[in-house]
Design goal:
125 residues; mainly alpha; 2 strands; 70% helix
Length: 125
């Protein structure tokens, strides 16, 4: 008996879910080498991408919005990234919000993990 359209859609979504779960497990394993959690890596990578697009320092709010991550998670991750020297944080001219840039050390980690993630993606397809 042929599958209904709903059954096909559910099967397709389940396949994507399984692929995403497999990617996340491999990503977590890879990121352990750099001492980063998946959330910290997403915040670092998103900060770098937004900074490049704007050609300026970014706010935590902009990073959270772009990555789809809540403010608390971004703040916690950013504190750890700053502590490890992967981002620099300063205040804007009015002292109201943080201005964040990725350091050279952070850039190196993003570049190294980006190429390794690309290989993971190729292996999964």
């Amino acid at each position: 008996m042929a599958l209904s359209e709903d059954e096909k859609r559910v099967d397709a979504m389940l396949a994507l879910f399984c692929e995403g779960a497999r990617f996340r497990r491999n990503a977590i394993r890879l990121l352990r080498e750099y001492g980063l959690t998946f959330a910290q890596w997403r915040v670092l990578r998103t900060t770098q991408r937004v900074e490049k697009e704007l050609r300026d320092a970014v706010s935590q709010q902009a990073v959270g919005q772009r990555a789809g991550i809540d403010d608390g998670t971004v703040s916690t991750a950013m504190d750890e990234l700053y502590r490890r020297g992967l981002v620099d944080v300063s205040f804007d001219a009015l002292g109201w919000s943080h201005r964040i840039i990725v350091t050279g050390k952070g850039e190196q980690i993003v570049a190294a993990t980006e190429s390794r993630f690309a290989r993971l993606c190729r292996m999964g397809s």
